[in-house]
Amino acid sequence: MANVLFGGGVAAMAGSIGGTVFSRGAGGAIARNRTKPVNKRSALQSARRANSAYLATYWSGTLTVAQRADWNAYAAGTSWTNKLGSSIENSGLSAFVRLNTLRILAGLALSAPAPTAMGHAAGVGLVIAPDVATPAYNLAEPTAGFDKDTDDHTLLIFAGLPTEGGRAALPKGFRFVAAIEGDSGTPETFPLAMTPIYTFAAGQNITIKAMFIDEFNRVSGPFFASEIATPT
Q: Are 176 and 156 in contact (CB under 8 A)?
């Protein structure tokens, strides 16, 4: 399904209609033929589907009526946007699945209660220094959002496919790299050398994405950092 923003005609479009996929790159709007992956059910896709099915069952079969009402109230009281930046309505179920999908990925226990404050977690200030020799994604201590000294803060890091140095558009293929938990007793040491998901070479552009879960159990939007990989 495509998201469409109407202007005098169609001002913006993202997603797919029929055999055409619409997106936006550094040079403007892009339309390309839709391709089908050879393996539609990779291990990662199967795990994601299984988690979504499990969480939907948990929502209907385990959460209390009051808990579902709290999630619905949180979703109704929080602003949500789609790929085009337009405001949309969201459901309590979607918000519940969004949070707990990340919690499962981070190895955390499921959270049945809704967030205790409206809105989203704060934005994360990211800086990386990818190193070919080690190799490693070297993550500096975030300048905003996630606090290494705060309990119940969790930062999830994903990495995209390496791209050529001059390419400005976001890469594809983001995969989970690591979850970093805040700890008031023994905080993480930065810069943090994380093992790369993808092999990369000097001169390539490396992009990471962060999702942040704060102490209120709210999830941030995605935040990105890109840097050219260095030889040493």
A: yes
Residue owning tokens 């070297």 = 138
Q: Dig out the tokens for 77 from the structure.
A: 């009281």
CB contact at 8 A, 119 and 140: no
- How far is residue 6's CA from residue 78's CA, in Å, rounded to a whole number? 24
State the Cα–Cα distance between residues 68 and 107, nearest whole angstrom.
23
Q: Of 89, 54, 87, nearest to 74 (Cα)?
A: 89
* Max CA pair span of the chain: 57
Instruction: Mention every residue, 6+ apart, whose C-beta is less than 8 A from residue 209.
Output: 157, 158, 159, 160, 174, 222, 223, 224
What is the tens place of the pLDDT at every residue in 29-42?
556 666 655 555 56
205, 162 contact by CB (below 8 A) = yes
pLDDT digits 0-9 by tens, 163-199: 998 777 889 999 999 999 999 999 999 999 999 999 9
Angle between helices 65-76 and 92-105 (to 10 degrees): 100
Structure tokens at 148: 């290494």
If one compares 19 and 171, the residue with the highest pLDDT of the two is 171
